[in-house]
Amino acid sequence: MTQGNPARQPGLVRTFLQRTLPFSELPADSLRRLAEVCTVEFVPEGTALPHSAQRPEALRVVQQGAVRLTVAQEDGSPALQDTRGEGDIIGAAALLGRSTASVHATTLEDTFFIRIPGKTFLGLASEFPAVERYFMRTLPEEYLTRAFDEMRLRCEGASGSGGLYLFSGLAGDLVHRPPETVVRGTTLQQAAYRMMKSGTGSLLVCEAAPPHGEPDAADMHLHAAVRTAALGGSPAAGPVIGIVTDKDLRNAVALGMGHEAPAETVMSAPVAAVDETCTCFDALLEMMRRQIHHLAVLRAGRVVGVITAHDIMVVQGRTPFSLFREIMQQRDLRSLHPLGPRVAHVVRAVVEEGARAAAAVRMITVFNDLFLEKVLTLLQAETGPPPAKFSWMLLGSEGRREQTFATDQDNALVLEDCPDDIIARAAQVYFDAFCTRAVAELEACGFARCAGGIMASEPGMRLSVSGWQRRFIRWIHTPEPQELLKSSIFFDFRHGHGHAPLVRHLRESVAAAAQADQVFLRHLAADALRDRPPLSFFRNLVVEKSGDHRNMLDIKRRGMLPFVNIARLMALAHGIDETSTPDRLTALEQEGHMPAQLCREAREGYEFLMHVRLVHQLGQIRRGEPAGNHISPAELTGLEKRTLKEVFAVTERLQAFTRQRFKLDVS
């Protein structure tokens, strides 16, 4: 075949397009007809193709070879914009009328194209909207969804029909009866009798009805974070003020309370609630996070029923709540140790049932926080109360709530400032023993020690509020590159256990200092540009060439870390308190500090990388191997590899935005 003599090879074309997005998603008959009108075109090295300022006569798909894309700079010299290799497409933006610059394409080597007539392509885009949407943005949602589905199906033991109920079923679907209510002043005996007669395990406690039989409108709306349920529309009861469960009544009897005591003396308030459109999975996580067994369900802000953890367990069959309950029931530290490894099996089940990484990681965070609280609570019961207030501070991926199965301990201790020397010395002795034991117990539960020594058991990781303030101020005002690299995970800190105001006060002072220091932010920005996305000049995935991880890709360092670093940088620059990467990106988008499209793609891309990492680690655990972060691209499907490349292209755009935002002239 020579240049200018394209040949029709429908069999070859159909086979190639069957594995090339977006054409692989066409119906078989449409793909066959498309292949019949396409030609295979040979273009020698160094040949210029029609540029995007003109509407090309055809769409070209690289079948073999490579193409360089350049744009003209102000001085007329060409600047490299991109390179395209096998499966990449040339000319779509121009054909669809979306070209914004004069992009010149030149073959870097002898190249074969599959040439699709322009009218044929435009007809496909009109007939199949998914084809046009593919070219509207770099990271199309429908293809991300397909890639997620492929990874779920690759998990061994994928659930059969009905296994997705935890994620498709809604809290409102579990409500089969209106809530049982009593008014303030109802005695414990009357409440117990009401539960027995109605066959329920909970009662909502309400104020007496307003004079006109309707609750005040101000009581009908719920706070977004801690919701106090309000029951309206009934002349018998006013706003809900609390909930009494059968467990509360048992505790009252055990404590010897009189049966004439009012129910509100043992009720829990405010009432935790979720909207009826909340998934069963999110309802379950809310119960686990709050360590409760009952949730009010709301419709238009009004309680329509109460659901329990048992309700979810019955419809789901297998549930994380059983492990959660087992952890809660332990009364000594040794009994906690064998429960840690079981978290991976529970999370594997929810991934098989359709959970994406964001949901799975939230569940891991709930379990990890529960282990921490249980370990420190039981340890304090053994050692006695501390001589000073403290906060167990979580750093790095723990602080970001983004742990998977290959993350070690990153923690520290914040102590209240003690002006009394005797109390300060007593606190030093107490917390030296307490933290050493706590780190060891967490390790026994499956949380590996930090190889870099960033743990509360190290003396340098136990400081007062003012001590931590001085350390952060030193990092901010004198940012040495190597020390800044080591200290960056400290800026993801959050409260884990103890006295939360200590960390809140520390965060306020650190946030103000970081936002005001532009030199520090520029150093962080330079660090965020240090690791380039693992794409070669020809847009192939870059893997390690030697060593134990030869032909593998470090999905954490090369893939996820640039997203983490840029989200942290931008959050500090704009005084955003969020610590998780997706939450930071959402806040940046909502406050208008970054382009909305870039934030959306960054969130979706980051979740995809996290899901690849999570599925890889679950496979290692299933095979009895230690969980790690190096993946082999050879084990991924074509769609997964293509999606990885698109995600890394998002990384390039994030870094370009960062370079421009902080005016960094780095290559």
Structure description:
This is Putative CBS domain and cyclic nucleotide-regulated nucleotidyltransferase. It comes from Oleidesulfovibrio alaskensis (strain ATCC BAA-1058 / DSM 17464 / G20) (Desulfovibrio alaskensis). Residues 22-142 form the Cyclic nucleotide-binding domain. GO terms for molecular function: [protein-PII] uridylyltransferase activity. By secondary structure, this protein is an alpha+beta fold. The chain has three domains: 10-136, Jelly Rolls (Sandwich), CATH 2.60.120.10; 168-319, CBS-domain (Roll), CATH 3.10.580.10; 337-661, no CATH class. 45% of the residues lie in helices and 14% in strands. Strand 12 (273-275), helix 10 and strand 13 form a beta-alpha-beta unit. The chain is globular. The two termini are 40 Å apart.
